[in-house]
User: Which sequence fits this backbone?
């Protein structure tokens, strides 16, 4: 599903990723960890084509990201649900509309959108907040809207960047259970996190980044 | 396009009301001035088209022409497709005419023992599509006919008027083109600004997998809205200007009172606004980069 071959990314002379090589199979669930600034977000951004590598090749679902035509990028991204570290919620849309966005861009009908969105909001425990604007939500609630938006279109690949950064332990475990559920239904899940509790004892692969390099790989 | 896009475009309306107001007003002013320019050019066009019928040619005949020759000549001139009417003016008629115009000093003519004035034809031209060049051509043909002594028509005057009309039309059209570029630029900038002010939202939509057209449509609608609203404003202004103001206060000035203001042009203003708004927005959005 994801193949990195000797991938490097340099931001204005500052190397953020150095020679990363790894493979994630279809249906796998794996974790990326490492200290702040190690390059976790950058690695995820490379996958959904928000940044381009300076070296190496990246292949997502058989599609090389450097050879992809610009017109195909939206379709690549539709295969991927992203829980952005910085949320990227639209302030002037309700929780419902923010979540619905992932379906609107696919041109789905209103009724279908309504059903899927309400179901997903229920999953993350925000059904009762569907008409509220993001600014009047707590940090954890906002995070769950982002998670709902990433899940609602049932992507083949889920990328979650620090998805429990604003959540308490109980809610974090609840979200982890949702991720495990969709993983069990075939979605490949890649989670970047500091939260060791998410992978401790999971027996999933954990890639550890340090200063932009892949330091080691363990089983959680 | 769907209801979603319309809502999305409308949602920005209130937040960006000053941008909307400013660009819609600029559009309205621009289109209004364009409609005034258009009416000027249009009226010049009508004037140019109707000019020749206001002219007549005077064809002076040689003395001693027989009635047969004269009739043949009259027929020949009348047969030309540019000619609408040929009137014979005899030597006596011409003298009467001269006498009338010398009112009070008719005695000047008393010493004449024979009439020195030639007989002539007054040739009226047809209303439409008469170019100065073809009038000149016609004059040349008539001059070469047997029995014709000379021909006079306001050639220089016709040329002069035609030149003025051409200058007004060319500068009018240039002016209209410049204004068109101006209003197009207004729409272009407005949409560009609206787009940049939503850069964050656009970036998010891109990352979620929206296509270029999905992103463009609300902004195209905003451009169209500015165009149509501006066009409607121009329609109101033009209506007030031409149909009310000039009709009431321009009556004392015959030039204005006789002006033709095509209603179709007024009605087309919002439509013109629509096209300009759409085009401006399309150029402003350009290619969406991913
Ligand atoms: N757009 C950018 N321009 C310049 N430098 C950047 C940019 N984005 C990230 N960096 C730098 O690249 C390095 C890796 O950043 P990245 O966001 O991938 O880290 P991270 O592992 O996700 O950190 P955190 O755990 O704090 O989220 C950092 O040193 C950061 O300052
Ligand atoms: Mg990060």
Assistant:
């Amino acid at each position: 599903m994801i193949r990195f071959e000797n991938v490097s990314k340099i931001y204005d002379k500052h190397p953020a990723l150095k020679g990363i090589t790894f493979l994630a199979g279809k249906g796998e669930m794996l974790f990326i960890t490492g200290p702040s600034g190690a390059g976790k977000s950058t690695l995820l951004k490379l996958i959904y084509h928000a940044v381009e590598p300076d070296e190496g090749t990246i292949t997502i679902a058989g599609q090389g990201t450097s050879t992809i035509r610009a017109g195909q990028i939206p379709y690549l991204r539709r295969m991927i649900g992203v829980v952005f570290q910085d949320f990227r919620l639209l302030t002037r849309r309700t929780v419902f509309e923010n979540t619905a966005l992932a379906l609107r861009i696919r041109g789905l009908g209103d009724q279908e959108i309504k059903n899927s969105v309400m179901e997903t909001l229920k999953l993350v425990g925000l059904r009762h907040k569907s008409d509220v604007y993001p600014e009047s939500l707590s940090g954890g609630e906002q995070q769950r809207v982002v998670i709902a938006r990433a899940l609602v279109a049932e992507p083949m690949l889920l990328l979650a960047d620090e998805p429990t950064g604003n959540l308490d332990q109980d809610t974090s475990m609840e979200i982890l259970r949702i991720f495990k559920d969709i993983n069990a239904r075939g979605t490949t899940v890649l989670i970047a996190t500091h939260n060791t509790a998410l992978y401790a004892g999971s027996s999933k692969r954990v890639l550890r980044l340090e200063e932009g390099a892949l330091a080691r790989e363990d089983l959680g | 396009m769907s209801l979603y896009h319309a809502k999305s475009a409308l949602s920005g309306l209130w937040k960006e009301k000053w941008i909307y107001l400013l660009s819609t007003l600029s559009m309205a002013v621009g289109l209004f001035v364009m409609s005034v320019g258009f009416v000027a050019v249009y009226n010049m066009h009508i004037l140019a088209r109707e000019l020749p019928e206001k002219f007549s040619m005077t064809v002076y005949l040689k003395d001693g022409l027989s009635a047969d020759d004269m009739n043949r000549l009259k027929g020949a001139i009348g047969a030309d497709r540019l000619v609408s009417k040929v009137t014979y003016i005899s030597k006596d008629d011409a003298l009467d005419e001269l006498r009338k115009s010398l009112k009070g000093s008719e005695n000047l003519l008393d010493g004449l023992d024979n009439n020195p004035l030639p007989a002539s034809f007054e040739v009226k031209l047809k209303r439409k599509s008469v170019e100065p060049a073809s009038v000149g051509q016609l004059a040349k043909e008539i001059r070469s006919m047997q029995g014709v002594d000379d021909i006079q028509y306001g050639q220089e005057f016709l040329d002069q008027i035609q030149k003025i009309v051409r200058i007004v039309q060319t500068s009018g059209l240039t002016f209209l083109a410049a204004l068109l570029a101006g209003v197009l630029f207004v729409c272009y900038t407005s949409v560009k600004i609206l787009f940049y002010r939503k850069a964050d939202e656009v970036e998010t939509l891109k990352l979620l997998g929206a296509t270029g057209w999905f992103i463009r449509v609300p902004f195209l609608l905003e451009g169209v809205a500015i165009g149509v609203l501006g066009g409607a404003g121009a329609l109101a202004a033009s209506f007030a200007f031409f149909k009310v103001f000039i009709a009431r206060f321009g009556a004392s000035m015959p030039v204005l009172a006789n002006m033709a203001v095509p209603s179709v042009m007024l009605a087309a203003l919002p439509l013109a606004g629509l096209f300009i708004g759409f085009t401006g927005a399309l150029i402003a959005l350009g290619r969406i980069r991913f």
